[in-house]
Design brief:
The protein is globular and about 50 Å long. A hairpin with a 6-residue loop joins β6 and β7. It has a single domain, classed as Carbonic anhydrase (Beta-carbonic Anhydrase, Chain A). It has a 5-stranded mixed beta sheet, with helices on one face. A two-stranded antiparallel sheet has the order 1-2. It starts with 9 loop residues before the first helix and ends with a strand. The chain is built from 6 helices and 7 strands. It has 204 residues and is α/β, with parallel strands linked by helices. The protein binds zinc ion. The site of zinc ion (ZN) has 7 residues, from loops.
């Protein structure tokens, strides 16, 4: 469908204005590692990504997987785009629930997901994965809220969960799990910091 020719100019895809310009080649979206400052000429990727999905569908092999995770495992991780949770742990589709948010912090909504995971879908083990170089290390709780309030006119009622040390942040999240009466299975909880420069998981 898409000729595997030399990379089309980014203007041909309309995907300029972001770091890593997306281009088509052999039916897949590839990206040139070009740092392009985010600016007003940003354009969304969804339409082009649907073409990747068409290729995915044509090769789809996950038919018949069970709804409940095979390893009875739930993982709570930061949303960081450099972390592929399945890949870093050698997981297969259907093995585990992956619950992600900014920081991988145990918030009320993470507890909500864990309660569904444990009580409805039989998971009994929890792994926490935070990481080095997290965005939440680069802001302060009040400073970030000040910025939002100046921009929106309203101060967020929620906690940003900014932190300095990812190991301390994992300890805090583990403590929240252990102290939360809604979390049914607490016997198997382990926490890790993923080193984004080496791929290594460091246990807390
Ligand atoms: Zn992060």
């Amino acid at each position: 469908m898409f000729a595997p020719e030399s990379p089309a100019p980014s203007s041909a895809t309309g995907l300029t204005g972001k770091a890593g310009v997306l281009i088509y080649e052999e039916g897949y979206l590839l990206r040139q590692n070009v740092a392009v400052p985010l600016s007003d000429d940003f354009s969304p990727s969804a339409t082009e990504l649907l073409l990747n999905n068409a290729t995915f569908v044509s090769e789809f092999g996950d038919v018949g997987l069970a709804l409940a995770p095979l390893l009875h495992l739930a993982i709570v991780a930061c949303m960081d785009s450099r972390m592929d949770i399945f890949q870093m742990l050698g997981l297969r589709h259907g093995d585990a629930h992956i619950i992600r948010n900014a920081g991988g912090v145990v918030t009320d909504d993470v507890v909500r997901s864990l309660v569904v995971s444990q009580r409805l879908l039989n998971t009994q083990e929890i792994i926490l994965i935070h990481h080095t170089d997290c965005g939440l290390q680069k802001i302060s709780e009040e400073g970030f809220k000040d910025e939002i309030e100046q921009d929106c006119g309203t101060r967020p009622h929620w906690i940003v969960e900014a932190f300095n040390d990812p190991f301390d942040a994992v300890r805090e999240s583990m403590k929240r799990l252990r102290n939360n009466s809604f979390v049914k299975y607490k016997k198997n909880i382990r926490g890790f910091v993923y080193d984004v420069e080496t791929g290594k998981l460091l246990e807390v």
